[in-house]
Every structure is written in C-alpha cells, then in structure tokens.
Target: Glutamyl-tRNA(Gln) amidotransferase subunit A, chloroplastic/mitochondrial
Amino acid sequence: EEYFTRLNQTEPLLKSFLHVSENVMRDAEEIDKKIARNEELGILAGVLVGVKDNLCTLNMPSTGGSRILENYRPPFDATAVRMVRERDAILIGKTNMDEFGMGSSTEASSFQITANPWDVSRVPGGSSGGSSAAVAARQCAVSLGSDSGGSVRQPASFCGVVGLKPTYGRVSRYGLMAYASSMDAVGCFASSVMDAAILLRAISGHDTQDATSCKCEVPDYTTELVPKDLLGSEPLKGLRVGVIRETLGDGVDTGVTSTIQAAASHLEEIGCTVTEVSLSSFSLGLPSYYILASSEASSNLSRYDGVRYGNQVLADELRSLYGVSRANGFGPEVKRRILMGTYALSAGYYDQYYKRAQQVRTLVQKSFKKALGEHDILISPAAPTTAYKIGEKVDDPLAMYAGDIMTVNVNLAGLPALVLPCGFVQSGDVGLPVGLQLIGSAFDEAKLLRVGHIFE
Ligand code: GLN
Model:
C-alpha cells in the first residue's frame, strides 16, 4: 500500500510506467496465504519488481516501447521474469523505455517521456529510464532492465541508483526482445548493492531456451558481501584498482571527473592499490558499437512485418503491407538504426564497416583482457555528464550517441559492470547524482558487488 500511495503521487509527474498491474493486491494476498499455510517463501517474497517493457510478461502488455507492438500480450514470460515470479516477487508493472532499447534518454519511447526524479525537467537516462526512475522514486523496490550498450548503467547513474549489467551469458535472454543479440543483457536496478546482489542471484543461471546462457555455477552473491562491521579489518587490502585514463579529462564534465577521482582516493584510503591504466582502443568502442548494434538491429527487427509480429496496416499487396506496417509502427530513431545497419551490412560496404567494426571489437576485448590481467577491477564514470534537460539532445543523434562512450566497450567485451551512486554535482539548486562504474572479469560479478557494497 505504501508503494502504491507513492506510485499514485509520483507517477503523473514521472511517467515511469507504461502499464501498472491490476493484480498487485491479489498477488500480495497470495503471499499472505502462503505465510498462513506455513509454506516456504522464495527469496523475493512480497518484493515489488518493475519490469522493462522489452521483457515479455504473461497477463500484461509488452510493447518494447514501440507502437508496432501496441497492445501485444505475449503468451509467455521471459525467463528472468519467470524466475522472479517463482521466487514470489510481485510484478508491479512494465516500465517505459526508448523504443526497442535504442536511445539514452527515454525520449525515443513511442508513448511518453519519463522524468528524472531528482529534477523533473531532466531525463532519467535510457534506454531503461522507466526502470531506473521507478527505483529512484521508490515506486518499486527493484527492477529489471536491459543493457546492450549502457542502458542499465547510464540511467542508474542519472537517477542515483545501483545498476548492474551482468556478464553476457549470465542471465538468460529468452523473452527479451532482441536488439543487438551479441551484446544484449538483462540487468538489475536496486537502491542498494545488497538488493542488486539478491536480484542478480534470483535471475542468473543456465537456460536451455538461450543457447548463449552459461552453464557455470551461480554463487550466492550476498554471502560474498563483507559485513559493514568488518570494515576496520581492511577487507579490500591489496585489491588492484585501475582507473581508466581515457575516461577522465577531455569531454567529461569537471564535476564528474572530480567525483570519480574522490571515489578513487576513497578506495586507496581503505587499502586498495589504485593506479591509472590506459585502454588504447577505448575511443574506438563507440563507432564500433554503433555499427554492430545497428547491423544486428536491422536484422532482428525484420520480424516486425505486420504479419508474424507487429500491428498490421492493410495494403493492396504484401510488399506494401510490410512497408506501411513498418512505416507506421516504427519511430524515427529505430528507422535511422535500420537504415544505418542495412547500409553497413550491404555487399559493397561490408568489409569497410561491419568487418572493420568486428576487428575493433577484438582489439577492445584484448585491451580489457590485458588491463584486467594487471588489475582486479577497473573504474570509470558511468557517463560523461550528469542528467541533462529533456529536449537538450533529442535533435542531435550524434551528441546522444557520444554520451554512451563510458559504457559501450563493456558490452563489446561481454564483461560485467556495476554502477553505484558516489556523489553529486550541484546544478543550480539541485544536486545531480554521479555514478561510479566498476568493471570486472567475465563471471566475476561477486567481486564487483563486494567492492561496491563496501563503498556504500
Ligand atoms: N544508448 C545505446 C543505444 O542507443 C545503448 C542502448 C542499450 O543499451 N539498449 O544503442
């Protein structure tokens, strides 16, 4: 009831949700009944979870933020959604997002723009802006998002919450609407690292429905976290932290840089060995990501043809039916990506763009491997700026893309990364949160959570 009261008060201003479940109270009563029957409860019993609208859900619409799927109700749950339900969580609703995950501000949603709870004239980040705003405003306890190039970490940074992008393969993608399949990952939003650890454990593991999901064991992340009262014993002593040189300085707000530097000093104070590390291919990540993500999107989105999937607009013959259904259903950013991707993949340009971008991807992977051989974790800002004003970048796609510089490399390499709030930059009379990004080796989420937890 408390969450609902807050949701009703804040939602008219924030617009985090595209759909609020009618069954929340009924689901809560089911849990009460289980308690009365002395049944064992799941780890998420009674926890209100918001779900990004590109994750398929039974009994609720799933639009992916797109007109083309308006009113679509999937006949199944995404694996991550099924897993939270099986652990007795209550789904509060579906959160707003940039159409199919393409965007960094939620302004590319077909339906509404979500506001940042810290300053409603600003964006919450994207594409999982609804999920991050909902947790920041405590409209729900935790939420699920997706991160193909930063869509969990950048909005977590803008909204001052914890955001976790797991290793590629850690969480099943089954039921996540495909954008850039080689980089898509289901991720978690929470108001503490402990909550993120609990949620990650709940959704991780092998799934026969996703051939890229990993068979490796899922640790109990919560038991790996160091209790706060052991802080005096310097539990992080000797941990080697690398500050990525290319992420501080030119093109990064001075307030963001100084906040991250202060975070690095704090890690040093608590016993870590902090040094600078250079990732030489860092700046190449952005063009490589946008070529690969658009290429994969152009192929993945061909399923929305008004016949197999997507709302249909009738026409005289089949080809025009495809054409008008897609022209009508997709928004401008999605069309731009399909055009860019189709161009990059076309016969005459394949070597010049797609193949080149794949070669760059290998370089990025190698430079992370080297840096993570010499350091236990790497740190950087999660975004070069704090949350910007609604409308500020909407007419300048390149400026919008450039804001993803801190996050896309991690997806190219498939690595896990945790973002947590580590300070504020004053803007007029509001303080805007700054997120610290911790990057680790594949399947070593436990270490990131351990460091992040101590940091809180
Ligand atoms: N902003 C990036 C893009 O538009 C990343 C999106 C994402 O991670 N889904 O592609």
Summary: The radius of gyration is 21 Å. Residues 236 and 402 are 34 Å apart (CA to CA). The pocket of glutamine is lined by residues 101-104, 127, 146-151, 179, 293, 404 (CB under 6 Å). Residues 2-224 form a domain with the Amidase signature (AS) enzymes fold (CATH 3.90.1300.10).
